[in-house]
């Protein structure tokens, strides 16, 4: 299993999934009705020189490449919803003026630290594998990108003692935190997912929030060769990367006393006026986004 690798970069192991979602954001960004505008997404794809060709905009996607259109809608919905979650958590009165400490777990090539209008005194921690963050930093530096807040990269494997690395970067467990786990849970074996949420719980002051994306049943759906074959155009062997663990983060957070809400990708499609017009709609529409607050 690729997930057992200890060390991956942007075109290997789970790292290539970060490039795949950047490509999907680049396709979405190029649409007139884009739900997310990520000015760095295409730059990441070009700079990676991936052996697997990936689009840098809708113009690179052939009409019959339904998987990239599907990914563009999926990533547009997910990015918009999670952008709103993060900005709302900074605006709400968690402290007197909302959360100022944000942790992006498995940040990958997510450029939110640079593209969202953060409060100036916000501190955003980006946690991911060292080689993924090195590539990201290099591309962003060459683009002249500047964050509108304080950014702290935390290069560490989330299966190791990432809490120590986070604290070592200045993270304050006494202050409320807005956590994000986007595009991470589906790759984690159940024991790793459980350890991750336990650590988040331990590091969270009351009033902290989290948003988690998860895809119930995706691992087993991709074991079906007809579903897997519809996704071969992505050039990423998702079936070998996705975990088949049906771990339920909503239930696990609720058991720990967090107030949990949940929405499906299908509901987000309705909310934002988009649809999954493909026979993979059932798989994509079943994606879940939980948001939770520690009491
Ligand atoms: C699908 S990408 C999502 C990236 C980002 N959240 C986004 O949506 O653009 C998955 C990311 O998870 C990271 N990841 C997965 N397992 C990890 C681990 N054990 N330690 C650190 N990063 C990990 C990968 O390196 C990759 O960047």
From TrEMBL:
Keyword match Methyltransferase: yes
PANTHER family xrefs: S-ADENOSYL-L-METHIONINE-DEPENDENT METHYLTRANSFERASE YKTD-RELATED, S-ADENOSYL-L-METHIONINE-DEPENDENT METHYLTRANSFERASES SUPERFAMILY PROTEIN
InterPro entries in alphabetical order: Ppm1/Ppm2/Tcmp, SAM-dependent_MTases_sf, SAM_mthyl_Trfase_ML2640-like
GO biological process, one term: methylation
Keyword terms, alphabetized: Methyltransferase, S-adenosyl-L-methionine, Transferase
Gene3D superfamilies per UniProt: Vaccinia Virus protein VP39
Role of this protein: Exhibits S-adenosyl-L-methionine-dependent methyltransferase activity.
Group of enzyme by EC: transferase
Entry similarity comment: Belongs to the UPF0677 family.
EC number(s) stated in the UniProt entry for this protein: 2.1.1.-
GO MF entries: methyltransferase activity
Record lineage: Bacteria, Bacillati, Actinomycetota, Actinomycetes, Pseudonocardiales
Protein name (record): S-adenosyl-L-methionine-dependent methyltransferase
NCBIfam families: mthyl_TIGR00027 (TIGR00027)
Pfam families: LCM
The organism's place on the tree of life at top rank: Bacteria
